[in-house]
Design a protein that fits this description.
174 residues, mainly alpha, Four Helix Bundle (Hemerythrin (Met), subunit A), 5 helices, disordered C terminus
Length: 174
Amino acid sequence: MAKRHPSLVSLSHDHHHGLALALRLRQGDKALLNDGWTHDRREQAKSVEDFYHTELSHHFIAEEKALFPSMRRHVPESSHLIDRLVLQHREMEEIVSHVSVAATHDLATLLVRLGEVLDQHIRTEERELFPMYEEKISENVARAIQVEMDRLRGLKGEAQPSSTQRREPQRGNA
């Protein structure tokens, strides 16, 4: 991937992990068995759900609440592209919601489709959206976007404060 604006580095880092998962999902039984990966589709489905809940959902939130609105505001010509990316977010969420309950014969199809959509989505952001951002977003706006994305990504599961958030002591009812 190309060298990214500092405000996009964390998203590009996520994309690296997402592309690795997408490749494994698309390869199915031909995927390399390393890093705990298995050819068992039920185990793959569990890995996908874990990845979604620990990484992907937070990535989507940062994009949809910070990056995309700012892009629409400051780069109006990005709106059609952002519409397509948001639809892909919803499609991936829909697939993830079905993998735990899918019949075995449907599971392989769902997982391959998720891999395809995830791969296409990441490549669209890296090749189209991010270059547009880097060309048209000012440094001040980029800094504000990064601060907001960091704040949103720090809210992973709200019960777990990020290292930059102060943990308030719990007070009992006296």
